[in-house]
Input
Amino acid sequence: MTTTFRQSRRTLLAGAAALPLVTVFGRAVRAAEFEMKYATGQDPTHPVNLRAQEALNRIREASSGRVDIKLFPANQLGSDTDLLSQVRSGAVDFFNLSSLILATFVPLSGITSLGFAFRNYDEVWKAMDGELGDHIRAEIAKTPIFTASRVWDNGFRHVTSSTREIRGPADLKGFKLRVPPAPPLTSLFKALDAAPSPINFNEVYTALQTKVVEGQENPLAIIATTRLYEVQKTCSLTGHVWDGYWVLGNKRSFARLPNDMQAIVTRELDKSALDQRADIARLSESLQADLKAKGITFIDVQRDEFRKALADTSFYAEWKQKYGATAWGYLEKVSGKLG
Output
C-alpha cells in the first residue's frame, strides 16, 4: 500500500512536470498580457519609489493581472541620461526624471526651477496642476515621450555652507558654491555674484571636505541621506528653486495598452503622485529636526530680498526670452511679476 502510494505520488509529480505551471497551480502564475518597465534614479526607500511601487501593485490588481509593470530603482538600468534615451526609444516604458535634467531634452521644463519663482507649495501646485503644467506637458508631448501622471515632488533646494552664514543676497558675493551641471542654477548664482562651480554629485562630499567649494544647494532629503551635514555647518532656508519629478512614458509602449488599461495606469500613478507630495512635505519638517540634532544650524531668510536682487539684474529678462511669453505669462499668473 505504501509502495503504491509512493509510486502514485511520483507518477503525479512526473506528470505535473510536463504540464504548464498555470495548469497545476491555477491563476496565481498567469503571465501578464502586458509587461512593462518603470525606472527611477532614486534609492529604493525614497518616497518616489515607495509610492510608485504601491501604484504598480494597484495597477496589477485593477487590471486583473493583465498589466504588470516592474520597478527598477537606483539607476539599475542606467544613468539618468541613459534612461532618458531608453524611454525615448521604448527600451524602458516609464521613467521618473527631475525637471532640471529633463530640460536638457525639453528646455521649457526648466521653467519650474526658475530662481525664487515660487514662494511656497500652494503656488507650486497651482502652477503645476494648472495652465503652466499643461503647457509643459504639451511641449513634452511633441517628442516620442509624454507625461504619464501629475508631476511628483523633489522639494525646494536650500544653500548650505561650511564658512560664512548666508542671510541675504550680499552674503553670496564670491561664495564658492557647488551646483549641478544645470544652466538655470549656474545662471541664478552668477546673477547674485556668487562663484558657482558645476560638479558631478558623486564628487560633492569630497569637494566640500577639501574646501574646493564652501557650500552646496540641495533639498533637505539629499543633504540628510548623503551625510553632507558632516562637512557643512549651516543651512539657509533659501528655497531658491523648486524641482519636480516627471513620470515620463514612451508613447508607442503606452499606445499598446487598451484604453481601459491606460485609464487605470494614469489613475493609479496620479493617486501615488498626490501621496508622494504629502510624504515630501512631512519629511521636510522632520528632517529639520534630524539635521539640527546632527549639528546643522538653520537660518531663516527673507526670500523676497533675493528675488528683488535678481530683479535688479538681467536674469529674469534673459530667461523670459528663452522660455517665451506664453509660458512666462502662465508662470506670472501664479508667481506674480518677475523682473
Residues 1-28 have pLDDT under 50 and may be disordered.
